[in-house]
Amino acid sequence: MSTAPTPPSSDRQKLVLLGAGHAHVQVLAELARQPWPGVDVTLVSPHPQLFHFPMVAGYVAGRYAVQACSIAIEPLVRASTVTWLRRSAVALDANRRRVRLDDGTELDYHWLSVNTGSVQDRNHIELDLPGAAEHGLFVRPFAALGALWPKVIELAASRALRVAIVGGGDSAVELAMAIRHRLPEVALTLVAGQSGVAAAHPPITQDRLVRALKQRRINVLPDQAIRLNDEELTLGSGARLACDVALIATGVSAPAWLQISGLARDANGFVMVDACQRSSSHANVFAAGDVSTRLDGLLPRNGRAAMSAGPTLAVNLAAVTAGRDAMPYTPSNRALKLLAYGDGRGLAAWGNHTLQGRLAWWCKDWLDRSFVRRHSRADPRDP
Fold first, then answer.
1. Which of 105, 86, 106 is nearest to 96 (CA)?
2. In a 3-state reduction of DSSP, which class is residue 188?
3. CA–CA–CA angle 115, 75, 32 (5° rounding)
4. Spatial distance between the Cα atoms of 170 and 201, rounded to a whole number of angstroms
C-alpha cells in the first residue's frame, strides 16, 4: 500500500466527494438528513444535475422528458452542510492527498470518494473509428445527446433517415428499440461488433433480445465499424452502410486523470476497490459506480450498481471519518437485469430466467422513477 504524507493538521476531517454520480447523490441525501460532526465535506462536480442514465432509452423513445430523468444537485447541497465547487478534476495525486481542479485550485483531503462515472474517450474511439469525433452522436455525456436528439426527430420528419447504432451492449440494444418506437419509418441498423448482441448475458437472454430486435425490423450486423463520414459507415468486412445519423454506444473508459493518480487500477484503468469500496492501494480513498472495479468481481460498472452501493458507501464514509471501521457490501451475484424495449415492454433477466412484456417494463419504470423522485425532493429530509 502506498504511504501518504500526513495531510495539513486540522481538528476536523476533510472529505472530498469527487463527482455527483448515483452513489454520491445518496451520500448527499444522508448528509442532509444527518450531518456528520467534525467533518467538512466538499463536493466537486461541474454539472447542475445528475441524469439517471438507465432512463436514456425511455427519453429517446419519447416516454420521458429530460426533467423526469434528472436529479438536481442544488437542493441536496442546500439541505446539507456541503460545500459545492462547480469544477472538474483534472489531476489527482493520491500519495500527496491532493486534487487539482480545472481552474488551477488544489484541494487537500483526509478522505476522498470518487464517483465521477466513466466516459467515452473520444480520442481513443477516433483511433478505432476515424470520423466518429466529427460525425458521430455520442451517448455519453448525456448533455450532448439530450441537446441533439430533438434535432434528429425534426430531421426525420422532413425526410427518410438512415440511422446506425454502433455497439452491441445493453445501452445499444435499448437505444435501437427506443429509436424504432420513436421513429418507426427510419432504416435502422445495429452494428453490434464481432461479439454480437448483449455478449455479457447468458445465451437465453441474448436469444430473446435478438428476436426482439428482429421483430422490430432492426437490422443487426455482427461486424465492426471502422470508418465514418457524413454519408456512410464503413465496416470491417468492406461493406458500406449508408448512414445519416450514427449513435456511438460503444464501451466506456476511465477518466484520463486516473492514469497518473497513483491509485491501483485494473487493466482498463478503473480504480481497484475491495468489498468496502475502498481503494486497494490507498486506504483513505473510496470509489463507487462505473469508475471502479471490485477485486472480487461481484459488482458491475454501471449506474444501477452505484445505486445499490450508495447506501453502504454513505455508511462507510460516516464511519471512517469518525474513526470506525468500514463494512463490506456484498451484492447478489445474480442481480435482476432490466432492459427497456421502448414501446412499453421490456425484458427482466435473473440468471438464466427471463421475462418479457409489460410487467418487465413496469418494474424498470417504477424503480427508475422512484430513485429520481426520492432524490429530487425540495428537502431530502422529508419522509
1. 106
2. strand
3. 70
4. 9
Q: Please state, in angstroms and rounded to a whole number, the distance separating the CA atoms of residues 199 and 190.
A: 14
Per-10-residue mean pLDDT, the chain, length 383: 42 94 93 94 94 94 95 92 95 97 96 90 91 94 90 95 96 97 97 92 94 97 96 96 96 89 94 95 94 77 68 96 93 78 95 93 95 74 48
Q: pTM, whole model, 2 decimals? A: 0.89
Q: Which residues contact 292 (CB under 8 A, 6 or more apart)?
A: 114, 270, 271, 272, 273, 277, 301
Cell numbers for 134, please give them: 466529427
Q: For residue 328, which of 304, 299, 351 has the smallest C-alpha distance?
A: 299
Q: Is 107 in contact with 101 (CB distance < 8 Å)?
A: yes
Rounded to 10 deg, the angle between the 303-321 and 22-33 helix axes is 40
φ, ψ of residue 54 to 5 degrees: the values are -60, -15
pLDDT at 304: 62
Give the H/E segment covering residue 25: helix 22-33
Q: Dihedrals φ, ψ of 286, to 5°? A: -115, 155
Backbone conformation region of residue 262, classed left if phi is above 0, alpha if psi is from -120 to 50, else beta: left
Kindly state the cell numbers that stand for 212.
426482439
The pLDDT value recorded for residue 332 is 63
Q: How far is CA 31 from CA 23, 76, 280, in A?
A: 13, 9, 26
| 178: number of Cβ within 10 Å | 23
